[in-house]
């Protein structure tokens, strides 16, 4: 059955990436304007858009509390740390958040659109896929960054 002028995104089609999404990432990467950026898929616009940003002073706990408990999101987090040589460093993590309790359709959409978004966000150091908070614990970031 087809309705004229009504198209429903196909779960395997992948989504576009809004210019604002790329610009916001660059502000995090280059200007350190944000500690994190959370992205969501806007099915009506068929693109990945900015859902929320976190100020530079926000903590990792603030970031994880901003992720929905039962819906998928993409996020980038600017992780600052000090090396064993006492040097201040920063690594950008890409996190694909897809909790077990989210809808199957959402999981499919986010899985098929992830690579496109990752290609658009140049400068990511590490990627984490998480289905529950323990898979993206702060210790996981520390282990990867060092």
TrEMBL record:
PROSITE patterns (alphabetical): ADF_H
Keyword Transferase attributed: no
ADF-H domain ranges (all copies): 14-146
Record CDD domains: ADF_cofilin_like (cd11286)
UniProt keyword annotations, A-Z: Actin-binding
Pfam families: Cofilin_ADF
Family to which this protein belongs: Belongs to the actin-binding proteins ADF family.
Protein's name according to its UniProt entry: ADF-H domain-containing protein
Originating species: Hibiscus sabdariffa (roselle)
Organism lineage string: Eukaryota, Viridiplantae, Streptophyta, Embryophyta, Tracheophyta
């Amino acid at each position: 059955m087809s309705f004229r002028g009504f198209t429903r995104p196909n779960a395997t089609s992948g989504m576009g990436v809004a210019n604002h999404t790329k610009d916001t990432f660059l502000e995090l990467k280059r200007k350190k304007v944000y500690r994190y950026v959370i992205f969501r898929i806007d099915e009506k616009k068929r693109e990945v858009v900015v859902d929320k940003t976190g100020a530079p002073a926000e903590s990792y706990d603030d970031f994880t509390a901003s992720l929905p408990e039962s819906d998928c999101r993409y996020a980038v987090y600017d992780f600052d740390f000090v090396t064993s040589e006492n040097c201040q460093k920063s690594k950008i993590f890409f996190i694909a958040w897809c909790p077990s309790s989210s809808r199957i359709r959402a999981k499919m959409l986010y899985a098929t659109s992830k690579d496109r978004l990752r290609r658009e966000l140049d400068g990511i150091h590490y990627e984490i896929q998480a289905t529950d908070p323990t898979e993206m614990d702060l210790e996981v970031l520390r282990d990867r960054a060092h």
